[in-house]
Design goal:
- The protein is an alpha+beta fold and 130 residues long.
- It has a single domain, classed as K homology (KH) domain (GMP Synthetase, Chain A, domain 3, 2-Layer Sandwich), CATH 3.30.300.
- The protein has helices at 2-24, 61-83, 98-116, and strands at 34-41, 47-54, 90-95.
- The protein has a three-stranded mixed beta sheet.
- Strand 1 and strand 2 form a beta hairpin.
Length: 130
């Protein structure tokens, strides 16, 4: 239990600090307006997946991820200085696709509900028993 709580706290701490560092310190032109939506640290604290989104429609996600990957070493070093942890996890950046998944699920639910609504039916079983 304590280990899970520690990982959750570290996830939140890394998310907040990475957001600040990316916004203020990363000067790579490939990295524009980025939101760090979540961080998922492995239980052994060796690796962290950093989920990001951007609001800039003209910027390709591949380009943005390449810029973040390029800044990864600097970000780890800066995290080490700021957080005073014995070991900073290796950072891996990925696009956060949770919003698209939620929209897809919502659309599927809407379709299913529309299919269930039959305007000529009162909800009773229309089959006649012999």
């Amino acid at each position: 239990m304590t280990g899970r709580r520690r990982v959750r706290r570290l996830n939140q701490l890394l998310r907040e600090e990475l957001s600040r560092l990316i916004r203020r310190e990363v000067k790579d032109p490939r990295v524009g307006l980025v939101t760090v939506t979540d961080v998922d640290v492995t239980s052994d604290l060796e690796h962290a997946t950093v989920y990001v989104r951007t609001v800039e429609s003209d910027r390709s996600m591949e380009e943005l991820l390449a810029g973040l990957h390029s800044a990864g070493g600097y970000l780890r070093h800066a995290l080490g200085k700021e957080l005073h942890l014995r070991r900073i996890p290796e950072l891996r950046f990925e696009e956060d696709r949770s919003l698209e998944r939620a929209r897809r699920i919502e659309a599927l639910l809407d379709q299913a509900l529309e299919g269930d609504e039959d305007p000529g039916s009162d909800g009773a079983d229309d089959r006649a028993e012999p």
